[in-house]
C-alpha cells in the first residue's frame, strides 16, 4: 500500500481500537501490521511505555476509529454519571467533544447522540448531573467548553419545561453542535478583533453552509 493510505492514530483513541488494525512504520519495510482486528492494546498486555510512540491506521478506518473511541468514552461517561462526580463528567464530555470536532462529519454524530442520551437519562436527572454542569459553566470560554456549557443550559431548560427525553435529546445535540462550523474556519479569523473583510467572510460562510449540508442530508434533520 502507498504511504498516503495511512494516517497517524490519535493517542487518545489508541486503547479503544478493537475492530481496527494498527500499523507501525519500520525503516526499510514501510508500514507493518502491529495489532490485528479483534483485540485491543490492553488485550496484548502492552502498556503505554512499551508500544511504539507513533502508530498508524488506514485512512479508510478514520471514521470507524472515531466511532470506536466515542463508544469507549461514552462508557466512561456512564460510569462518571453513576459516580456523581461532576468534574469527571465534564472532563469526559470535553474529551468526547474534542474527538468529535477533530473530525466533524455526519458519521461521528452517532456517538454524540448517545452522549446526550446518557445526560438526559432518568438516572442523570436523579443525580443532578446537568444542574452540576451548569454550576461549573461560568468560567469556561473555549469552543469545546462553550459547546458543553450551552448544552448544559439547554438541558436544564428542557428539564424545567418538562420536555420528553427524546425532545431533550434533540435540542441537546443541537446545542452541543451549534458551533461545529467553526472547526472549518481559520483560527486567526475566529479571533480577529475587527470586522471581517469580504475575502475573509465569504469563505467562512461557505464552510458553515457546507457543514449544515453535510449534517442535514444524512439524517440529522430527522
UniProtKB/TrEMBL annotation:
Spell out the InterPro entries in the cross-references: HD/PDEase_dom (IPR003607), HD_domain (IPR006674), HD_GYP_dom (IPR037522)
User: Which Pfam families does the protein's record reference?
Assistant: HD
Residues of the HD-GYP domain: 121-222
Name the PANTHER family on file.
CYCLIC DI-GMP PHOSPHODIESTERASE PA4108 (PTHR43155:SF2), CYCLIC DI-GMP PHOSPHODIESTERASE PA4108-RELATED (PTHR43155)
The protein's name is HD-GYP domain-containing protein
